[in-house]
Amino acid sequence: MDHARLKSRFHSFYPDKFFLEYSVSGVNEYLSGKNWLLDNENVTGLEKPGEGNMNLVLRVKTNIRSFILKQARPWVEKYPHIPAPVERNHVETEYYLIISKDKILHAFSPEVLGYDKDNFMVMYNDLGDSVDFSYLYKNGNRLLPDEKKDLLGYVSALHHFDSPAFPFNGSMRELNHEYIFRIPFQEDNGIDLDAVQPGLKTASLPYTENLPLRKAIGQLGKYYLMEGPVLIHGDFFPGSWLKSGSGIKIIDPEFGFKGYGEFDLGVMIAHMLMAGQGMEMVESILEDYDPPAGFDPRLLAGFAGTEVLRRILGVAQLPLALSLEDRINLMKSAEEWIMTKKIELL
User: Residue 307: phi, psi to the nearest 5?
Assistant: First the structure.
């Protein structure tokens, strides 16, 4: 969908709201109206800091500094045909403000410089030249030991963080639930798997036509929708891990909620395997993660297996350097984890 149609669509929902776009004068006027600019500061340029899925993100350059603006629209930015709740930026802002009370978690987070709830906008400090960890999906790239240690330190601290209150985030949970636990396993879901990789459609049939598997995944989906005991990030995968000049930062917690830590860790494990990091990495993750009370390895296995299957068979495709045989082998393992409720290590 072209820019003009997206802008018109946005204003059909919210006629009086500001629409973030590549307009230096428009962004300057908006920021001035919010009193977010310093004395004698003016916007001089705009650029895209990286690939984003959910929101429009711009790096704003001024005559004094640079910072990041992030706006939620009533759709998924990468897939405008998919509706999405605009209150996700409220959840993300709450997440950062709440975990800022913890020194470990705060060190991994960007700084919230401003939040405009009325226009679904957040302003962050600019982390400078940085890349997310999606390069791990390319052949030969490895997660370094110190990086793994930092990531597990973050997620362990998060799952032990005492957060008595947090937004339920029901709309975002329901959106994610559809695309994790339901749509990838529907036989006629409109996803052209053979366009992803020839032969993948046929390879998907043992999973989309497997009623016991689909029932088990449905039960896992119920856990996902429940209120759980710990605060979770909700999308803890390489695209949310940022390598910056000041160390690793964890971004995009708009799917965060009080849930089950098994989900975050299961997602991490699934992506390490899809990124070719091997079962040695999985074993190391399980050894180094500090689980909260009541952590259930059976739930972990189910969430990890579901994440593998939904990424291979669903809408949210990854730049995987995997052959069809590799994908089939991963899907077989994922099914086994879900049905046996355990991850077999080396």
Answer: -65, -40
Specify the 3-state DSSP secondary structure of 57.
strand
298-313 average pLDDT score: 97
Quick check: helix, strand or coil at residue 263? Answer: helix
Q: Residue 58: in which H helix or E strand, if any? A: strand 56-62
Q: 18 CB contacts (<8 Å, ≥6 apart)?
A: 30, 119, 121
Mean pLDDT of 34-57: 92
**What are the residues whose beta carbons fall under 8 Å from the beta carbon of 221, sequence distance 6 or more?**
177, 180, 181, 182
The amino acid present at 45, given as its one-letter code, is G
- Looking at residue 345, its pLDDT comes to 72
Alpha-carbon separation of residue 222 from 173, 328, 329, 342 (angstroms)? 11, 26, 27, 19
Residue 346 has pLDDT above 90, yes or no: no
Q: Where are the alpha helices (DSSP H) in the chain?
A: 3-13, 24-34, 88-99, 103-107, 145-160, 170-177, 193-196, 200-208, 211-225, 261-274, 278-288, 297-313, 324-340
Is 106 in the same domain as 223?
A: no
State whether 83 and 165 are in the same domain.
no
Q: How far apart are CA 38 and CA 140, in angstroms?
A: 45
Q: What integer pLDDT is reported at residue 139 of this predicted model?
A: 81
Give pLDDT tens digits for 148-166.
Answer: 999 999 999 999 999 878 9
Examine the fold and report which residue of 125, 157, 184 is the final residue of a domain before the chain moves on.
Answer: 125
3-state secondary structure of 86: coil
| Residue 93 structural domain | 3-125
Nearest residue to 163 via CA among 103, 262, 112, 95: 95
Q: pLDDT tens digits, residue range 110-132? A: 999 999 999 999 999 999 888 99
234: nearest Cα among 212, 256, 261, 258: 256
Counted domains in the chain: 2
- What region does 159 belong to: left with phi over 0, alpha with psi -120 to 50, or beta? alpha
Helix (H) or strand (E) holding 67: strand 66-71
Specify the pLDDT at position 1.
64
Distance CA 230, CA 293 (A): 10
Q: What does pLDDT average to over the chain?
A: 95
